[in-house]
Amino acid sequence: MGKVKGKHRLDKYYHLAKEHGYRSRASWKLVQLDSKFKFLNSSRAVLDLCAAPGGWMQVAVERVPVGSLVLGIDLVTIAPLRGAISFEQDITKSECRSKIKKIMGDNGVKAFDLVLHDGSPNVGGAWAQEAMSQNALVIDAVKLATQFLAPKGNFVTKVSFSAVDSFRIWWC
Fold it and tell me: Which residues of this protein are catalytic (predicted)?
């Protein structure tokens, strides 16, 4: 039987995302994490790395204090989102760091209270290669987080492990 796609998909988070107007089912991951750990309501500046299509940015905009900076970056264009800024760039490039610094300066932000990362490489179904590439992206995200995260700030990411381990680390 072929892969179930679109409106015929049975995943409850897919349906919840569509019902609530979220761009991705991943939005619910962040909603659940924030409900448990309460990191968004105290964040005045949020950096979302590998942010397309913008589902985590949507949740951030909804839950941060009014007037907070929500900045999303991805290799692909992120459709405009009211209350957020986004740009297209590779997070491993120095141009990306320069642009982040400029946007921070333009918005009076000295550091980010929260750095988010839910990136996944597109390697076409080769799980081992995808996991390795995804974890390399996590390392790149950690490098950026160490540059831009405020003392006592939060970094939220996902890390893939082998099917034998069968778990993900979502918050650290």
Answer: 158 (proton acceptor)
Total domains in the chain come to: 1
pTM: predicted TM-score of the whole model, two decimal places: 0.84
Q: How far is CA 24 from CA 31, 66, 105, in A?
A: 12, 23, 30
User: What 8-state DSSP symbol labels residue 2?
Assistant: P
Does pLDDT of 17 surpass 90? no
Residue 21, pLDDT score:
87
Instruction: Dump pLDDT digits (tens) for 87-110.
Output: 999 999 999 999 999 999 999 999
Residue 162 belongs to some domain of the structure = yes
CATH code (residue 121): 3.40.50.150
Distance CA 11, CA 28 (A): 12
Please report whether residue 2 resides in a domain. Answer: no
Which distant-in-sequence residues (6+ apart) come within 8 Å of 47 by Cβ?
A: 71, 73, 100, 112, 114, 115, 116, 144, 145, 148
1 belongs to a structural domain: no
Confidence of residue 113 (pLDDT cuts 50, 70, 90): very high
Catalytic member of 29, 38, 152, 158: 158
Flag the least confident range among 39-43, 56-60, 126-130.
Answer: 126-130
- Full domain range(s) for residue 109: 38-171
Annotation marks residue 158 as catalytic: yes
